[in-house]
Precorrin-2 C(20)-methyltransferase
Amino acid sequence: MHNLGKLYGLGVGPGDPELITVKAFRMLKECPVIAYPKKLRGSKSYAHRIIDVYIQPEEKEMIGLVFPMTKDEETLEREWSKSVELIYASLVKGKDVAFVTEGDPMLYSTFIHLMKLMQEKHPEIEIETVPGISSFNGSANRLGIPLADGDDHVAMIPAQDNYELMKKAIEDHDAVVFIKVAKVLDLMLELLNEMNLYDKAVVVTKVTSDEEIIWKLDELEGVELNYLSLMVVRK
């Protein structure tokens, strides 16, 4: 078992390639195998695009993994298990594998479930995570909005189709970062208008990347937001 490779979960930041850590950069160089989320149509994932400037794909073994966006448990179990076994096939040959994920590997990350499954199916595998700058941090700095000062309360919350719950989150905190806001944008706009906080919120898509878009709320009517969008509300 001492010949097994090690699995690394690398946080590669919110979008700007310069926002990866020195340690993540070193692991990208040292690991012979790079695993990354892959879109079904074969286009590069967000995490893959972030690390493009740092790797030469022909010098690495690249493992693209598909994580389907579905609630069908049978499909999820099959595809996630397939991903674990693809990575394990390299680990069992003694090769270290770096799995890259945007943001931080321990914060709303694809790597979390992958890690749990690997621990369940192959507990002998050693796993290490490398922290990354999250979109939570990236948005605050990019927008120049202090999220917390002194005794302020701040929260990071997945936006949900629940008006009262979202309202309470805003009422209970000085600042809230709502991730996954695209699917409930109309509800959030209605809520903020009712709370007279329209001028206290900003939406940003693909923060810090070269595709970044910053939206004022009055620009969002009828807009179909990208999945990688979040809303910052600072009272």
